[in-house]
Amino acid sequence: MTVIRPSAFQRRTHRGGMAISSRRNTIINGDCLDILPQLSPLSVNFILTDPPYITRYKSRDGRRVPNDDNDAWLKPAFAEMYRVLERGSFCVSFYGWNKADLFIAAWRKAGFRMVGHIVFRKRYASSVRFLRYEHEVAYLLAKGNAMPPASPVPDVLDWSYTGNRLHPTQKPISVLKPLIQAFCNPGGVVLDPFCGSGSTLVAAQEVGRDYIGIELDSTYHRAASERLHRRNPEQQCEARGHSTAECRASAF
Questions:
Q1: What sign does the CA torsion over 198, 204, 205, 210 have?
Q2: Which domains does the chain have, with CATH numbers?
Q3: What is the predicted pLDDT for the residue at 127?
Q4: Reduced to 3 states, what is the DSSP secondary structure of residue 40?
Q5: Which pLDDT band holds residue 13 (cuts at 50, 70, 90)?
Q6: Where in the chain does DSSP place strands (E)?
Q7: 233 vs 93 pLDDT, higher one
Protein backbone atom coordinates (compact mmCIF):
# COMPACT_ATOMS: atom_id res chain seq x y z
CA MET A 1 0.00 0.00 0.00
CA THR A 2 1.41 3.36 -1.05
CA VAL A 3 0.68 6.50 0.96
CA ILE A 4 1.11 9.72 -1.03
CA ARG A 5 0.91 13.22 0.40
CA PRO A 6 0.09 16.16 -1.89
CA SER A 7 3.64 17.52 -2.23
CA ALA A 8 5.07 14.11 -3.13
CA PHE A 9 2.28 13.48 -5.63
CA GLN A 10 2.86 16.83 -7.33
CA ARG A 11 6.63 16.20 -7.59
CA ARG A 12 6.11 12.80 -9.15
CA THR A 13 3.52 13.87 -11.70
CA HIS A 14 5.51 17.00 -12.64
CA ARG A 15 8.93 15.39 -12.99
CA GLY A 16 8.05 11.95 -14.23
CA GLY A 17 4.63 12.38 -15.77
CA MET A 18 3.37 9.44 -13.69
CA ALA A 19 -0.41 9.27 -13.57
CA ILE A 20 -1.69 8.19 -10.18
CA SER A 21 -3.82 5.53 -11.88
CA SER A 22 -0.55 3.67 -12.59
CA ARG A 23 -0.15 3.23 -8.84
CA ARG A 24 -2.78 0.89 -7.53
CA ASN A 25 -3.40 0.43 -3.81
CA THR A 26 -2.66 4.07 -3.10
CA ILE A 27 -4.18 6.44 -0.56
CA ILE A 28 -3.61 10.16 -1.12
CA ASN A 29 -3.93 12.94 1.45
CA GLY A 30 -5.36 15.81 -0.60
CA ASP A 31 -8.40 17.49 -2.09
CA CYS A 32 -10.11 15.27 -4.66
CA LEU A 33 -10.74 18.36 -6.82
CA ASP A 34 -6.94 18.66 -7.13
CA ILE A 35 -6.16 14.94 -7.40
CA LEU A 36 -8.92 13.60 -9.65
CA PRO A 37 -7.94 15.74 -12.68
CA GLN A 38 -4.53 14.02 -12.57
CA LEU A 39 -5.99 10.53 -12.94
CA SER A 40 -6.08 9.08 -16.43
CA PRO A 41 -9.46 8.95 -18.21
CA LEU A 42 -11.31 5.61 -17.99
CA SER A 43 -8.74 4.35 -15.46
CA VAL A 44 -10.98 2.95 -12.68
CA ASN A 45 -13.53 0.15 -12.83
CA PHE A 46 -15.89 1.03 -9.98
CA ILE A 47 -16.50 3.99 -7.67
CA LEU A 48 -17.87 3.49 -4.17
CA THR A 49 -17.99 6.66 -2.13
CA ASP A 50 -19.58 8.35 0.86
CA PRO A 51 -19.29 12.10 0.20
CA PRO A 52 -20.31 14.81 2.67
CA TYR A 53 -24.10 14.98 2.95
CA ILE A 54 -24.08 18.81 3.04
CA THR A 55 -25.91 18.82 6.37
CA ARG A 56 -23.34 20.46 8.70
CA TYR A 57 -23.24 17.19 10.61
CA LYS A 58 -21.66 17.13 14.05
CA SER A 59 -21.24 13.86 15.93
CA ARG A 60 -22.06 13.46 19.60
CA ASP A 61 -18.37 13.83 20.46
CA GLY A 62 -18.01 17.00 18.38
CA ARG A 63 -16.35 15.64 15.22
CA ARG A 64 -17.26 17.07 11.83
CA VAL A 65 -16.84 16.12 8.15
CA PRO A 66 -14.81 18.47 5.90
CA ASN A 67 -16.85 20.41 3.31
CA ASP A 68 -20.15 19.31 4.83
CA ASP A 69 -21.20 22.97 5.01
CA ASN A 70 -21.26 23.75 1.25
CA ASP A 71 -21.97 22.18 -2.15
CA ALA A 72 -19.28 23.98 -4.18
CA TRP A 73 -17.36 20.70 -4.61
CA LEU A 74 -20.33 18.54 -5.60
CA LYS A 75 -20.71 19.05 -9.37
CA PRO A 76 -16.98 19.31 -10.20
CA ALA A 77 -16.17 16.21 -8.14
CA PHE A 78 -18.76 14.01 -9.84
CA ALA A 79 -17.80 15.37 -13.26
CA GLU A 80 -14.25 14.17 -12.61
CA MET A 81 -15.47 10.83 -11.25
CA TYR A 82 -17.44 10.31 -14.45
CA ARG A 83 -14.37 11.11 -16.56
CA VAL A 84 -12.07 8.61 -14.82
CA LEU A 85 -14.64 5.79 -14.65
CA GLU A 86 -14.49 3.11 -17.32
CA ARG A 87 -17.37 3.10 -19.82
CA GLY A 88 -20.11 0.63 -19.00
CA SER A 89 -19.25 0.75 -15.28
CA PHE A 90 -20.96 1.73 -12.05
CA CYS A 91 -20.72 4.19 -9.18
CA VAL A 92 -22.45 3.74 -5.83
CA SER A 93 -22.79 7.01 -3.95
CA PHE A 94 -24.24 7.52 -0.50
CA TYR A 95 -26.06 10.84 -0.14
CA GLY A 96 -28.06 12.93 2.31
CA TRP A 97 -31.77 12.32 1.73
CA ASN A 98 -32.67 15.95 2.53
CA LYS A 99 -30.18 17.16 -0.12
CA ALA A 100 -31.25 14.62 -2.75
CA ASP A 101 -32.07 17.37 -5.27
CA LEU A 102 -28.48 18.67 -5.17
CA PHE A 103 -26.94 15.22 -5.56
CA ILE A 104 -29.28 14.15 -8.37
CA ALA A 105 -28.57 17.37 -10.28
CA ALA A 106 -24.81 16.80 -9.94
CA TRP A 107 -25.02 13.16 -11.07
CA ARG A 108 -27.13 14.02 -14.10
CA LYS A 109 -24.95 16.95 -15.10
CA ALA A 110 -21.89 14.68 -14.97
CA GLY A 111 -23.58 12.16 -17.28
CA PHE A 112 -24.55 9.40 -14.85
CA ARG A 113 -27.81 7.49 -15.14
CA MET A 114 -29.60 6.44 -11.97
CA VAL A 115 -30.27 2.71 -12.34
CA GLY A 116 -30.94 1.63 -8.75
CA HIS A 117 -31.53 2.78 -5.20
CA ILE A 118 -30.21 0.99 -2.11
CA VAL A 119 -31.56 1.22 1.44
CA PHE A 120 -29.36 0.13 4.33
CA ARG A 121 -31.57 -0.90 7.22
CA LYS A 122 -30.35 -0.12 10.74
CA ARG A 123 -31.40 -1.76 14.02
CA TYR A 124 -31.11 1.56 15.81
CA ALA A 125 -31.99 5.22 15.23
CA SER A 126 -29.19 7.57 14.23
CA SER A 127 -31.39 10.45 15.38
CA VAL A 128 -35.00 11.05 16.37
CA ARG A 129 -37.09 14.05 15.42
CA PHE A 130 -40.15 13.84 13.18
CA LEU A 131 -39.30 10.16 12.66
CA ARG A 132 -36.84 7.61 13.98
CA TYR A 133 -34.11 7.75 11.33
CA GLU A 134 -33.09 4.11 10.95
CA HIS A 135 -31.57 3.83 7.50
CA GLU A 136 -28.85 5.05 5.13
CA VAL A 137 -29.33 5.38 1.37
CA ALA A 138 -27.26 5.28 -1.81
CA TYR A 139 -27.90 5.47 -5.52
CA LEU A 140 -26.50 3.05 -8.07
CA LEU A 141 -25.26 5.15 -11.00
CA ALA A 142 -24.20 3.90 -14.43
CA LYS A 143 -21.87 5.32 -17.06
CA GLY A 144 -22.91 4.42 -20.57
CA ASN A 145 -24.37 1.04 -21.50
CA ALA A 146 -23.64 -0.84 -18.28
CA MET A 147 -24.68 -4.49 -18.19
CA PRO A 148 -26.39 -5.97 -15.11
CA PRO A 149 -24.05 -7.86 -12.79
CA ALA A 150 -23.98 -11.67 -12.78
CA SER A 151 -25.26 -11.74 -9.20
CA PRO A 152 -27.31 -8.63 -8.36
CA VAL A 153 -27.44 -7.64 -4.71
CA PRO A 154 -30.73 -6.85 -2.92
CA ASP A 155 -31.75 -3.20 -2.81
CA VAL A 156 -32.28 -3.50 0.96
CA LEU A 157 -29.22 -4.49 2.99
CA ASP A 158 -28.78 -4.85 6.74
CA TRP A 159 -26.47 -2.36 8.42
CA SER A 160 -23.86 -3.11 11.08
CA TYR A 161 -22.94 -0.48 13.63
CA THR A 162 -19.24 0.46 13.51
CA GLY A 163 -19.19 2.58 16.63
CA ASN A 164 -17.77 5.40 14.45
CA ARG A 165 -14.44 4.98 16.22
CA LEU A 166 -12.27 6.17 13.33
CA HIS A 167 -14.64 8.60 11.59
CA PRO A 168 -17.95 10.26 12.60
CA THR A 169 -19.79 8.62 9.67
CA GLN A 170 -17.78 5.40 9.41
CA LYS A 171 -19.42 2.83 7.12
CA PRO A 172 -19.35 -0.91 7.88
CA ILE A 173 -17.17 -3.08 5.67
CA SER A 174 -19.87 -5.75 5.71
CA VAL A 175 -22.23 -3.66 3.52
CA LEU A 176 -19.48 -2.46 1.17
CA LYS A 177 -17.99 -5.84 0.23
CA PRO A 178 -21.07 -7.22 -1.59
CA LEU A 179 -21.32 -4.01 -3.62
CA ILE A 180 -17.69 -4.29 -4.72
CA GLN A 181 -18.08 -7.98 -5.55
CA ALA A 182 -21.20 -7.28 -7.64
CA PHE A 183 -19.96 -4.26 -9.59
CA CYS A 184 -16.19 -4.71 -9.91
CA ASN A 185 -14.49 -7.75 -11.39
CA PRO A 186 -11.55 -9.39 -9.58
CA GLY A 187 -8.37 -7.43 -10.21
CA GLY A 188 -10.31 -4.25 -10.97
CA VAL A 189 -9.66 -0.84 -9.42
CA VAL A 190 -12.10 0.67 -6.90
CA LEU A 191 -11.96 4.45 -6.41
CA ASP A 192 -13.16 6.33 -3.33
CA PRO A 193 -12.47 10.09 -3.57
CA PHE A 194 -13.92 10.72 -0.09
CA CYS A 195 -12.40 7.72 1.63
CA GLY A 196 -12.53 8.89 5.26
CA SER A 197 -11.13 6.17 7.49
CA GLY A 198 -10.69 3.80 4.54
CA SER A 199 -13.65 1.41 4.84
CA THR A 200 -14.07 1.15 1.06
CA LEU A 201 -10.36 0.47 0.62
CA VAL A 202 -10.28 -2.25 3.27
CA ALA A 203 -13.40 -3.84 1.75
CA ALA A 204 -11.71 -3.81 -1.67
CA GLN A 205 -8.63 -5.50 -0.22
CA GLU A 206 -10.70 -8.19 1.46
CA VAL A 207 -12.41 -9.21 -1.79
CA GLY A 208 -9.31 -9.10 -4.01
CA ARG A 209 -9.75 -5.75 -5.73
CA ASP A 210 -7.24 -2.92 -5.96
CA TYR A 211 -8.05 0.59 -4.81
CA ILE A 212 -7.27 4.29 -5.04
CA GLY A 213 -8.37 6.42 -2.10
CA ILE A 214 -8.34 10.20 -1.60
CA GLU A 215 -8.95 11.91 1.74
CA LEU A 216 -8.74 15.63 2.51
CA ASP A 217 -8.48 15.47 6.31
CA SER A 218 -5.02 14.46 7.55
CA THR A 219 -6.36 12.82 10.71
CA TYR A 220 -8.74 10.54 8.82
CA HIS A 221 -6.08 9.89 6.17
CA ARG A 222 -3.69 8.73 8.87
CA ALA A 223 -6.36 6.47 10.40
CA ALA A 224 -7.06 4.91 6.99
CA SER A 225 -3.35 4.42 6.27
CA GLU A 226 -2.74 2.72 9.61
CA ARG A 227 -5.81 0.55 9.12
CA LEU A 228 -4.59 -0.66 5.74
CA HIS A 229 -1.07 -1.28 7.04
CA ARG A 230 -2.42 -3.53 9.79
CA ARG A 231 -3.75 -6.05 7.30
CA ASN A 232 -1.68 -9.20 6.96
CA PRO A 233 0.18 -9.20 3.57
CA GLU A 234 -0.58 -12.92 3.22
CA GLN A 235 -4.31 -12.22 3.57
CA GLN A 236 -4.10 -9.55 0.86
CA CYS A 237 -2.27 -11.96 -1.44
CA GLU A 238 -4.76 -14.78 -0.84
CA ALA A 239 -7.68 -12.41 -1.51
CA ARG A 240 -6.30 -12.02 -5.04
CA GLY A 241 -6.64 -15.76 -5.68
CA HIS A 242 -3.14 -17.02 -4.91
CA SER A 243 -2.50 -20.08 -2.76
CA THR A 244 -1.15 -19.76 0.77
CA ALA A 245 2.13 -21.32 -0.37
CA GLU A 246 2.49 -18.82 -3.23
CA CYS A 247 1.79 -15.91 -0.87
CA ARG A 248 4.34 -17.10 1.66
CA ALA A 249 6.95 -17.62 -1.06
CA SER A 250 6.39 -14.12 -2.45
CA ALA A 251 7.18 -12.64 0.95
CA PHE A 252 10.81 -13.79 0.70
A1: negative
A2: 2-250 (3.40.50.150)
A3: 85
A4: coil
A5: very low
A6: 2-4, 26-29, 44-49, 85-94, 113-121, 127-128, 132-133, 135-142, 156-158, 189-192, 210-215
A7: 93
Task: Say yes or no to pLDDT of 200 above 50.
Answer: yes
Q: 133, 96 in Cβ contact below 8 A? A: no
Q: State residue 250's pLDDT score.
A: 38
Interatomic CA distance for residues 130 and 133, integer angstroms: 9
5-14, 93-102, 230-239: lowest mean pLDDT where?
Answer: 5-14
What value, to the nearest 5°, has the Cα angle with vertex 15 and ends 12 and 21? 40
Of the CA atoms within 13 Å of residue 236, those in its CB half-sphere come to 16
Q: How far apart are CA 180 and CA 175, in angstroms?
A: 9
d(CA 81, CA 83) in angstroms, rounded, equals: 5
d(CA 194, CA 10): 19
> How distant, in Å, are the alpha carbons of 23, 27, 29, 40 from that of 18?
9, 15, 17, 10
Instruction: Provide the pLDDT for residue 5.
Output: 61
| Residue 64 main-chain phi, psi, to 5 deg | -125, 170
- The answer to whether 166 and 227 are in contact (CB under 8 A) is yes
Q: What is the mean pLDDT of residues 175-184?
A: 97
Q: Are 149 and 98 in contact (CB under 8 A)?
A: no
Whole-prediction pTM value?
0.84
> Quick one: pLDDT band at residue 252, thresholds 50, 70, 90?
very low
